[in-house]
Structure formats: C-alpha cells, structure tokens
Amino acid sequence: MKFCAKPILAILLVCVCSAGLFAQQSDYQIKEEFKERYATLESELRTAANAAEIDSLIMEVDSLDMKFTEHSELLNSALYPENYTREIGLLKEKGREIQQRLLVIENKNEKLAELNKEITSFRGEIKRLNKHSDSLRQEILASQESEKRLAGLVKRYRQSMQERDKFILDVVDSLLIAYEGLSPQKTDELTNKMQAGKIENDENPLVIINTIIDNNIETLKRSNKSFTTEDYLRMYAVQKRFNEAWNDIGDGLVRIYGGENRVEWSDRVESKLEEWRASASMSMWASLDTYLENNKFDLSAFDNSYSFFLALDNFVKESKKSSQKKMMTSGNYDKFQKFNQFWNTKIKNEWSRYVQEGEVLTMHQISSIDSEMTTWRDEAKPRSWIIPILLGVSLLAIVGLVIVLFRK
C-alpha cells in the first residue's frame, strides 16, 4: 500500500496544479476577450455612419454586458482603477450620444434637401409679396378717393408688409435649421455639387439672401407716412434677426455656394447688410422720436438703445423731482398718467415683442424704469387741502378755547 500511495499522490498533485493553471488561463482569456470586444465596439461606435448602424451596435453592447456581467468581480481587477460597471456604462452612454448626433445630422440633411427644393419657391413667394405690396403702395399714391377708402388701402399695405416680414423670418429659420452646425462631410459634399454645376442659380441660398436685403433697403428708402412706429420697430427687429443668422451661417454659405467668387459674395452681402442695418436703425429711431414729440414728451436726443434708455430714465427722474416741488397741483399727475399710458400700452404691450427682439430696451432697463415710475406716481398724486385746513381750524379752536379758559 505504501508503494502505491506515492504515484497516486503525484497524480493528484499534477491534477491540482493543472486545474489551477487551467483556471488562470481561463481567467486570462475572459479578461482578454472582454478587452478586445470592448475596444472593437468602441471603435465601431466612433466610425458608425448612420443611426441604424448605431442601433445595432448598442444591441451588441447590451449582449456584451449580459455575457460578462457574471465575471464583473474578475474584470474589476483587470480594469483597475476603473471598474466593470462604469466601463460598460460609459460605452452605452457613448453609443447614445453618437446615436443622437447622427439623428440630428440625418434630420439636418433631410431639412437641407427640402430647403434646396424650396429655395426657388421662396424667391417666387417673395416676388409675389413684393408685387402685392408695391401694387397697394401705388394705389395709395394715386388715390384721390375718400379718406375712408385711403385708410383701407393703407391698412392693407401695412398688413402685406407684415406678411412679407413674417415670411422673411420663416426663411431665416429654415436656413438656420438646415445650415447651422453642418458637418464637414456635408459641407464638402455640397461644395463639390456647387462646383460641378449641379446646383442651379435659383437654388443658391446666397441669391435669395441678396434679394431679401435689396428688397428691404428699397422699402426703407421709399418709406412713407403709411408706416407707423410699430412697423419701423418690426423692420428693425427683422433686420437684427437676419444679421444674427448671417453671422451664424454666412461663412458656411459663402464657402459652399460662393464658388470662385467667395470673396465678392462675402463683401457684397456684408456691405448690403450694413446698409440695411443703418437704414432700418435711422428710420426706427427717427419714427420713435417723432412719436414722442407728437405726444409732448420732451426727451433728450437718442439714436441707439443706450441713449434711448438714458433719455427715458432722465425724463422720468426729472418729472419725479418736479412733482416733489409741486405736491398740491394736478398738472404733474396728468403728465404722469399720460406717460404711464404710453409706457404700459405701447412699450410694454403693443410694441413689446419688437422692443425685446430688437433689443431696443432690455428687461433690466424696463424694470428700472418701472421702479422710477412707481415713485413718480406716488410723488405726482395731488395732495388734498381739506385735511390741512381741518387741522388748522381744529388747532385754532383749541387755542381759542385755551385762551377763554385762561381768562376765566
């Protein structure tokens, strides 16, 4: 028995060592397989071309997690200082981020394709709106009919201009959706199509942008008494919005659609935008000044947002001081009520949208004027003479009574 025990012991020892070695090899294989598959999926996620491909890869990440989650403790040591749960979570999050980005790009490409088809119709619609407005304007100039008929024409003309400005903002929004944040690959693709002559002149966004600017400059040049201060505020806000959009996507549009004349296109649009801005600004501030003057509000001169705020602020503060000196008169309160009606009815209500969109006044500036207006109202309210008179009479009566009692 002793003779047989040694071989058996040796065999058992070999088996134990082999099992340990096999376990080590198995653990090593698990770690290596996970690392290799993880790296492959990470690389494939980065190079995925569309959202459908990402969907498939995200499913593979889920399968990877299901396969290796039971070995998470083993993998924690291999991934230290990170851990299995965090690494899988990061891979899934990366997949979702890339999926969202590709969906946005695909949606943008669809919008771009739609926009390219619509550019020609945009030009036609702008031409139609301009023709309609011009026709109404000519009727107004030539009209010898009744005042009521003329007022109706003016109203229709103003409405047609509002419709045109709304359409311009719709075009701006369409351009921003299609071209803002355009991927380098799509930019190159469109540039190549333009250079190959596959994009017609009527489909070139730079052409419609140039047309819109020219039309607005012409409208402001021949502006007449048909326009109100609100109309000029709207035109000013439209120009500002258009200018902001150009700053966002102008360089990209010129790079794609400018062809061999990129510098000329850029200079032309920039120059005309500045002319439009100057004309819209001058017309709006002049109209606002005339409106205030016609309503007997004596403000200091202004020609920009900051000087307008200072003029309003100084007017309210000076009026408040004047009210403090003339507490018993109603004239200052009448002045307050008239200006308060202008402030609340026009600035904060009827004109509010364009005042904010055009940054004519900021919300902080409006709040500041509101605060001063509250103080002015309290100071401007006329004080009644009745209470002081009654107090005086009462005081005299008391003094008289004291004298009578003293004499007795």
Q: What does this entry look like structurally?
A:
The chain has helices at 2-46, 51-68, 72-79, 84-142, 147-179, 184-195, 205-221, 229-257, 262-294, 305-325, 331-350, 352-357, 363-380, 386-407. With 408 residues, the protein is an all-alpha fold. The protein has 3 domains: 15-82, no CATH class; 116-291, no CATH class; 305-383. Helix 2 runs antiparallel to helix 4 (84-142) and helix 4 (84-142) runs antiparallel to helix 5 (147-179). The longest helix has 59 residues, at 84-142. It is flat, with a radius of gyration of 39 Å. The termini are far apart.
Name the helicity range: over 70%
Strand content: under 5%
Largest sheet: none
Q: Helical segment tally?
A: 14
Low-confidence segments, given as residue ranges, are: 12-23
Q: If you compute it from the alpha carbons, what radius of gyration comes out, rounded to the nearest whole angstrom? A: 39 Å
Number of strands: 0
Measure the end-to-end span: 150 Å
Any key phrases for this structure?
mainly alpha, 408 residues
